[in-house]
Amino acid sequence: MYLPFEDMPNEARIWVYQADRPFDEKEKTWIISKLVTFCNQWNTHGSLMPSSFDIKYDQFIILAVDESKLGASGCSIDSSVKILREIETELEINLLDSGKVSYMDAHGVKVAFLPEIRKHINEGSLQAQSKVFNPGVNKIADLENQWLIPADHSWLKKYFAK
């Protein structure tokens, strides 16, 4: 059952999906409609799960489930991936490829695919203190202080070691 994201508990489990480009307003409206419908029927073993989503920076989809009473099963997680694949196909975006890094620069969110990391560093757009989005966050509370971290505090630190 869908709940507004701000009504979800801080301990709710999350999955963060980063798009390779920002969503426009029409796309966001379509995504919201699609995900509200999905959350209203998202279940585990036939029981509806309190769930929600948020779109951050016009480029990240965050799915959330309150697992305090029942946890998300493998099948329920698979169904969420299926809906994200549908969004990918419809909007011709890359959401599920984990081989990309998103970071902030003066102009907003930048995306670097793994083979391009050194190029972004050499150009100076990705620096040791650049804020990178940590894909390892797994609960709503993590979004506050563990989602955006300096690049040299992430797995990217090897690129900045002296």
From TrEMBL:
Name of this protein: ABC transporter ATPase
Upper taxonomic lineage: Bacteria, Pseudomonadati, Bacteroidota, Cytophagia, Cytophagales
